[in-house]
Amino acid sequence: MHHRNTNPAVCLGERRGDRYTLRVWPPHGALTSDQAEMLGRVARDCGEGEIRLTMHGALEVTGVAATDLPAATLELSVAGLAAATSSTDPTQVTACSGAESCPNAVADAARLAMQLERQLAQARPSGGLHVAVSACPNGCSMPRLADVGFAGAVMPKPLGGPAGGEADGAFACPDGAVVWEEGRPLWLVERCGFCGRCVDRCETGGWGIARLGYMAYVGGSLGRRPRLGLPLAEFLSEDEAVQMAYGIASLMAEMGRPGEPLWALIERVGLDCLRKRVGQTDPHGEEGV
């Protein structure tokens, strides 16, 4: 069975001169059972029998001999995990389990990840690009540590008291953004994490949804200079998120230096330059974010 994948494997030389590590990014953060079986076979037959999980969700098969690389890369290609010959990280998109299985999800992370993969395949950023998508503000896919991160969010529309109210303790905002004064619920926007739980508690004529979409972050990184991604936009639709990511990837392809990560490009050209580029690709035709 063949699977389309824009996130190739990368062959990395190890300190042992005749050994290599094959790094694979599962398509939008998920492997099919066939792909998992194939990866396990490559690890057993060509590597050291182990598959390692990296912080960013990549999978690594270590200890592959140079003589086994052709067979290993062919096996991965058959599974839709095509191997590359460059040690530079390619564009990669990861996502959490999302709407199908997570009770906290407020957005379909897997669907957005697949759209991002298709669109970003057309751009070739100079330093590679890691995009992380989370279905809720909990950020299980670590969107604020990625080059570009998206986290699903809900802004409530206070219309009444959450079911249960303060009297019986049936509802408690995890961020302390809903408080009661004289028996009336008040929403404190400065504390709100936009998780949408107060909306969930108001299904019988209580609070509604004022805004729903993705929070966007840019310039996150781990490694030698860890940093949190900078907030760039709020409550984006899926189309707006895809256009934003494509605009950023295009900027990296045009202005980035070889191997330069996004955070370094932002430091060099300024966040305003990035904002302008995103504004130019905004589907509504508005400049800036």
Overall structural domain count: 3
Residue-averaged pLDDT, rounded? 81
Q: Based on DSSP secondary structure assignment, what is the total number of beta strands?
A: 12
Strand line-up across the major sheet: 3-4-2-1-5
Mind explaining what this structure looks like?
There is one protein chain. The chain contains eight helices and twelve strands. With 289 residues, it is an alpha/beta fold. The chain folds into three domains: 76 residues, 2-Layer Sandwich (Alpha-Beta Plaits); 130 residues, 2-Layer Sandwich (Sulfite Reductase Hemoprotein, domain 1); 48 residues, Alpha-Beta Plaits, CATH 3.30.70. The strands form three sheets. The protein has a five-stranded mixed beta sheet. Strand 6, helix 3 and strand 7 form a beta-alpha-beta unit. The N terminus and C terminus are likely disordered.
